[in-house]
């Protein structure tokens, strides 16, 4: 008999996806282009030239996907809204057909007894806004606030949990510093402005959500647990820089209304030379939240390293004097990511120590693993490694709760195999296998395991 970790009554089990990764139908019902359409259609940027044009065809197959969720027994489903379906040109007219799609989805979920949890921005910025400067400019944050108001007014009464941004670190730094995500810019300075404007956009969206009277508003950060390669002071200092950039540059403004004292060592004169931070921004950014969403996948081991970039204007983000080194003696997922579940406990416990009472209740809004799944002749997918990953991370999460961290929910990433950004369809994170040629969905062993874990809580 399998032993499942047990969670307190009311703990929310969920599954997560994101619009561009599953929907397809990119030209349907008035949707405008997003930066991910442009990026994925640029030769050489995404593995195999994959695009989200069809993806899992969820736009048409959502009733079937909601049925999978119902059968799974989750209490909540986290999905994101494609901004270019709602405001195809980034500003100006609202597209009623786009709103209707999410309205139908929300109703289908509610009818299945599943609470919708909406992410307003999971990276698919309307291309028109990128053409006007993207997140480098403040106007994009203002447009985001307006879009949030439209969506919240339409869906606010039916959607209890709202996430403004997903992983703004990725949007700012992968998008504008190293170009590994859309819009593919490699700019240094641009990424710092983007980081701040994303936070301003978050603040404006929270205002819009409050005005619409939603039950819970929060944000999702990809907080990382960094470990030093050695106990040398230089490597310990590298950990501080990495923690600053990945975690505190986001969590401190949001939770404490200030940028971290360590940012100068991380970014130096780059930050003081900027004029994009305005009086009053930090008050906007630090409005009280009902929860903090955290996405966690893996620990990162860092070592001190010299600047690789000689141009000071580009020294940002991935070039602030540390480099990632492999963690020894651990299994790696198909992403090459180290599997070390105890670091999940450590991250959460340290976060509680660092932020204390200003840390709101936590929802784990993503956790999961990409594995080299094989379909057996009977059609089943025996993804033992993913089952072990999920079991061990849920056990580690429970340990953090026992140590006093207030965690209210857990969303597995992902319901479906899907478009994994620059890796295209090569990397499969789903607990449901998708055959992209036929769009056939097959629940994997991990789906059945998660279903049993959820059912076991009710006993
Ligand atoms: C996170 C993203 C999500 C997915 C997982 C694997 O960074 O939020 O869309 O790609 O990683």
TrEMBL record:
<feature type="active site" description="Proton donor">
    <location>
        <position position="167"/>
    </location>
</feature>
<feature type="region of interest" description="Disordered">
    <location>
        <begin position="362"/>
        <end position="381"/>
    </location>
</feature>
<dbReference type="GO" id="GO:0030245">
    <property type="term" value="P:cellulose catabolic process"/>
</dbReference>
<dbReference type="InterPro" id="IPR017736">
    <property type="entry name" value="Glyco_hydro_1_beta-glucosidase"/>
</dbReference>
<feature type="binding site">
    <location>
        <position position="122"/>
    </location>
    <ligand>
        <name>substrate</name>
    </ligand>
</feature>
<dbReference type="InterPro" id="IPR001360">
    <property type="entry name" value="Glyco_hydro_1"/>
</dbReference>
<feature type="binding site">
    <location>
        <position position="297"/>
    </location>
    <ligand>
        <name>substrate</name>
    </ligand>
</feature>
<keyword id="KW-0378">Hydrolase</keyword>
<comment type="similarity">
    <text>Belongs to the glycosyl hydrolase 1 family.</text>
</comment>
<feature type="binding site">
    <location>
        <position position="166"/>
    </location>
    <ligand>
        <name>substrate</name>
    </ligand>
</feature>
<dbReference type="GO" id="GO:0005829">
    <property type="term" value="C:cytosol"/>
</dbReference>
<feature type="binding site">
    <location>
        <position position="21"/>
    </location>
    <ligand>
        <name>substrate</name>
    </ligand>
</feature>
<dbReference type="InterPro" id="IPR033132">
    <property type="entry name" value="GH_1_N_CS"/>
</dbReference>
<feature type="active site" description="Nucleophile">
    <location>
        <position position="366"/>
    </location>
</feature>
<feature type="binding site">
    <location>
        <position position="413"/>
    </location>
    <ligand>
        <name>substrate</name>
    </ligand>
</feature>
<protein>
    <recommendedName>
        <fullName>Beta-glucosidase</fullName>
        <ecNumber>3.2.1.21</ecNumber>
    </recommendedName>
</protein>
<keyword id="KW-0326">Glycosidase</keyword>
<dbReference type="GO" id="GO:0008422">
    <property type="term" value="F:beta-glucosidase activity"/>
</dbReference>
<keyword id="KW-0119">Carbohydrate metabolism</keyword>
<dbReference type="Pfam" id="PF00232">
    <property type="entry name" value="Glyco_hydro_1"/>
</dbReference>
<keyword id="KW-0136">Cellulose degradation</keyword>
<keyword id="KW-0624">Polysaccharide degradation</keyword>
<feature type="binding site">
    <location>
        <begin position="420"/>
        <end position="421"/>
    </location>
    <ligand>
        <name>substrate</name>
    </ligand>
</feature>
<dbReference type="InterPro" id="IPR017853">
    <property type="entry name" value="GH"/>
</dbReference>
């Amino acid at each position: 008999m399998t032993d499942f970790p047990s969670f307190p009554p009311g703990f929310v089990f969920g599954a997560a996806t994101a619009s561009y990764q599953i929907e397809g139908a990119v030209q349907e019902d008035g949707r405008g282009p997003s930066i991910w359409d442009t990026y994925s259609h640029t030769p050489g940027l995404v593995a195999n030239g994959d695009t989200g044009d069809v993806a899992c065809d969820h736009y048409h197959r959502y009733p079937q996907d909601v049925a999978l969720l119902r059968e799974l027994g989750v209490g909540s489903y986290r999905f994101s809204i494609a901004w270019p379906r709602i405001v195809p040109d980034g500003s100006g007219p609202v597209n009623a057909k786009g709103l209707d799609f999410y309205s139908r989805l929300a109703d289908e979920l509610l009818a299945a007894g599943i609470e919708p949890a909406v992410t307003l921005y999971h990276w698919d910025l309307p291309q028109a806004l990128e053409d006007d400067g993207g997140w480098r400019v403040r106007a994009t944050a203002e447009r985001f606030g307006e879009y949030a108001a439209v969506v919240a007014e339409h869906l606010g009464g039916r959607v209890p949990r709202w996430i403004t941004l997903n992983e703004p670190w990725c949007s700012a730094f992968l998008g504008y510093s190293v170009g590994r995500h859309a819009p593919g810019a490699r700019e240094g300075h641009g990424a710092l402005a983007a980081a701040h404007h994303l936070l301003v956009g978050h603040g404006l969206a929270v205002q819009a959500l409050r005005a619409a009277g939603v039950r819970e508003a929060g944000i999702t950060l990809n907080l990382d647990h960094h470990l030093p390669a050695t106990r040398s002071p230089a490597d310990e200092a590298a950990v501080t820089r990495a923690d600053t950039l990945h975690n505190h540059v986001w969590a401190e403004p949001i939770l404490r209304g200030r940028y971290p004292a360590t940012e100068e060592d991380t970014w130096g004169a780059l930050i003081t030379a900027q004029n994009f931070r305005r009086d009053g921004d930090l008050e906007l950014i630090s409005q009280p939240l009902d929860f903090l969403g955290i996405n966690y996948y893996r620990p990162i081991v860092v070592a001190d390293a010299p600047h690789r970039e000689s141009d000071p204007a580009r020294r940002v983000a991935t070039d602030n004097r540390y480099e990632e080194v492999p963690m020894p003696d651990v299994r790696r997922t198909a992403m090459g990511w180290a599997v070390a579940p105890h670091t999940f406990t450590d991250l959460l416990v340290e976060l509680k120590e660092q932020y204390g009472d200003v840390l709101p209740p936590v929802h784990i809004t993503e956790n999961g693993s990409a594995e080299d799944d094989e379909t057996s002749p009977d059609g089943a997918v025996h993804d033992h490694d993913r089952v072990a990953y999920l079991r061990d991370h849920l056990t580690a999460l429970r340990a953090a709760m026992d140590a006093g961290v207030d965690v209210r929910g857990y969303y597995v990433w992902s319901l479906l195999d899907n478009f994994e950004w620059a890796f295209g369809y090569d990397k499969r994170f789903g607990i449901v296998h998708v055959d992209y040629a036929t769009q056939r969905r097959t629940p994997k062993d991990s789906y059945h395991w998660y279903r049993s874990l959820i059912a076991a809580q009710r006993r």
